[in-house]
Amino acid sequence: MIQKYYFNVSCDQIKSNNEPSIRFMVNLVLEIIKHMKIKALKFGISLLMLLAILISCEEDDNSTSTVPVRDRTEQQVADRDSLLAYLSTHYYNSGFFEPSSDYEYTDIIITELPQDDDGNYLDMPDPDNNTLLIDAVETLTTTFLDTEYEYYVLRLNQGEGVAPKFTDAVRFRFEGSIVETKEVFQSISTPSNLNLQADGFGSSGSIKAWQLVMPTFNTATGFTLNNGIVDYDNYGLGVMFVPSGLAYFSAIILDVPVYSNLIFKFELLQHEEVDHDNDGIPSYVEDYNNDEDVLDNDTDEDDIPDFVDFDDDGDGITTFNELVQATYNQEPVLAENEYIYSRDETSEGIVIITVTAQDTNSNGILDYLDDSVSINYNEDEE
Questions:
Q1: Which of 20, 159, 191, 344 could crosslink 236 through cysteines, CB 3.0-4.6 Å?
Q2: Measured between alpha carbons, how far is residue 108 from residues 139, 176, 264 in Å?
Q3: Under a CB-based contact definition with an 8 Å cutoff, are residues 6 and 194 in contact?
């Protein structure tokens, strides 16, 4: 159910990028076959999935129920006005929240200012216990798809755990509503998992706003189990107010009208670091230009972004095999360019395997990104 609301349809990506996206999907299938040696049946399934997506997109193109795509910059101007108007005319129950207490997203109550008979807004009631949203939110900016966006965050508890990266998976609870209609389109009270970054082929990801906001909060410090119920401690709690351009924009989403500005009350409970291609390099590291977008990093220019490319530099040696492995029986102090690949905890102890990127020729380019260096550090183990 969560994918219905959170994940953009692959067709939308294909239509917006056209040939490059299709080429990316085809190349990814071939890359998997090349390096993973998939059996014929799995190959057939992969191609069938690809064809199904393309056919579905073609059917969508022929549909009469298309929605004209608006200019993103113009839409953002309108969305900003709508969000600021909302924030200026709504308040929340600030007096309810005290430091060092674990509250839930359901405790956050947002209310519109009272109005007189002519529709004019009146003063906010009980100002000692209520705060106007415009006076409480943080204003944040980002550039996405060549458009400058402004979005807003109400930070009720930072959390004292770990801040996730924009490519990680998070466990959360939330409520999503629409600014224009004030209707709740989905609420999840049971902890659910979400991949913030899609891999472009097999798994889906979140809307851009979640990739931007989640890393600014911290997860819980831990949890306790009480009568089968998991209680999390000191987790991130907040509300994000996002324009349509950082949400679903023109995508057709059930119960969410196109170009809707959205509100998400959320609890950030846990996170998990994700290595989408399991090559030993965490996906967030493969954002080499530091623009919080892993899709535009493609070292060997094979139309497969590095974070899902088994051989980032295209030299015939897989990325994993161009990393040096090490084994620890206690928590290691990681060196530069060293990452935890696996962790196995048993009654006999802990076994942690790490991988470290090398720069053999000292040219400032790590071996797995340097097609002039083709060293298989694991050749003796295969």
A1: 159
A2: 19, 13, 11
A3: yes
Query: Is 293 exposed, middle or buried, given 0-12, 13-18 or 19+ CB atoms closer than 10 A?
Result: middle
pLDDT at res. 200: 72
Model pLDDT, residue 40: 42
Q: Could you tell me the pTM of the whole model?
A: 0.83
Single out the residue in 228, 256, 272 at which a domain terminates.
272
Q: Report d(CA 355, CA 250) in Å as an integer.
A: 42
Mean pLDDT, the chain, whole residue set? 87
Q: Are 234 and 127 part of one and the same domain?
A: yes
Domain count, the chain: 3
Question: Of 65, 96, 111, which closes a domain?
Answer: 65
The whole domain housing 308 covers: 280-382
What CATH number is given to the structural domain containing 210? 3.10.50.40
Task: Give the Cα separation of 352 and 237 in Å (integer).
Answer: 32
- Could you tell me the pLDDT band of residue 325, with boundaries at 50, 70 and 90? very high
Three-state SS for the chain is: CHHHHHCCCHHHHHHHHCHHHHHHHHHHHHHHHHHHCCCHHHHHHHHHHHHHHHHHHHHHHCCCCCCCCCCHHHHHHHHHHHHHHHHHCEEECHHHCCCCCCCCHHHCCEEECCECCCCCECCCCCCCCCEEHHHCCEEEEEEECCEEEEEEEEEEECCCCCCCCCCCEEEEEEEEEECCCCCEEEEEEEEEEEECCCCCCCCCCCCHHHHHHHHHCCCCCEEEEECCEEEEECCEEEEEEECHHHCCCCCCECCECCCCCEEEEEEEEEEECCCCCCCCCCHHHHCCCCCCCHHHCCCCCCCCCHHHCCCCCCCCCCCHHHEEEEEECCCCCCCCCEEEEEEEEECCEEEEEEEEECCCCCCCCCHHHCCCCCCCCCHHHC
Which one, of 1, 57, 2, lies nearest residue 25 by Cα?
57
Residues 6+ apart with CB under 8 A from 100: 234
